[in-house]
């Protein structure tokens, strides 16, 4: 991003938080709270990553996976979904996943913070049960540093959609090793969650932008769940 093309307020925020800065989570969050609307950054393994403006290329699949989880939550008591929400993952990481699922009474909780302006803010603390990220390319941090962070912190399932490769990855945490292992889609390109009964993802429909196809497959998973 060229600082000549942004407002003085946003440019000042970028000067306070720069990609590559090494900060604790508390230091990062204190600075992040001072930034204006429209500024986005994450702390991954103690390193700041300032995000570029979000394009429609990213926004459409982000909307689709948000809707996919929204529909699952609507039929599943005791679970909540959050889009683009700050997560206090651990002392050195504060990501802002595209979408995540949290089980009530599970590994994460909602915490209240009062910022320096006296405003109350609610954040997620601890690892969500499922995280979904949309990455433009396989070189993005979502496939490397962020995956390592989610694995270390105890996220149970991690779904990553890589746009340039037209590929979806799904990892599940092995309870015995604490490491992520690949989940394979079936012959039709459908993933089935191991933690959330009935949560099925039609990757062919997702990659084709077929919203109806994504929801239809999810409904099939929910129907199968209700029969068992």
TrEMBL record:
> CDD domains annotated for this entry?
DUF820-like
A Pfam match: Uma2
Q: Which SUPFAM superfamilies match?
A: Restriction endonuclease-like (SSF52980)
Residues of the Putative restriction endonuclease domain: 26-177
What is the top-level taxon of the source organism?
Bacteria
**Gene3D superfamilies xref list:** tt1808, chain A
Query: What PANTHER family does the annotation carry?
Result: SLL1072 PROTEIN, SLR1083 PROTEIN
Name of the protein:
Putative restriction endonuclease domain-containing protein
Recorded source organism is: Calycomorphotria hydatis
Lineage, uppermost ranks: Bacteria, Pseudomonadati, Planctomycetota, Planctomycetia, Planctomycetales
């Amino acid at each position: 991003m060229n600082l000549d093309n942004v407002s003085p307020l946003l440019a000042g925020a970028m000067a306070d938080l720069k990609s590559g800065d090494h900060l604790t989570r508390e230091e990062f969050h204190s600075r992040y709270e001072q930034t204006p609307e429209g500024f986005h950054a994450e702390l991954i393994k103690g390193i700041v990553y300032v995000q570029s403006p979000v394009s429609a290329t990213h926004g459409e699949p982000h909307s689709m996976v948000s809707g996919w989880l929204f529909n699952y939550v609507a039929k599943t008591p005791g679970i909540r979904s959050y889009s683009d929400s700050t997560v206090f993952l651990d002392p050195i990481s504060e990501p802002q996943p595209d979408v995540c699922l949290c089980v009530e009474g599970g590994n994460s909780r909602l915490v209240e913070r009062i910022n320096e302006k006296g405003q109350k803010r609610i954040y997620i603390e601890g690892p969500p049960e499922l995280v979904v990220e949309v990455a433009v390319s396989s070189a993005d941090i979502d496939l490397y540093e962020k995956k390592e962070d989610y694995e270390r912190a105890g996220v149970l399932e991690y779904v990553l959609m890589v746009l340039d490769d037209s590929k979806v990855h799904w990892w599940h945490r092995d309870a015995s090793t604490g490491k992520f292992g690949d989940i394979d889609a079936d012959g039709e390109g459908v993933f089935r969650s191991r933690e959330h009964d009935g949560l099925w993802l039609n990757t062919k429909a997702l990659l084709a932008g077929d919203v109806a196809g994504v929801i239809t497959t999810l409904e099939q998973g929910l129907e199968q769940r209700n029969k068992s």
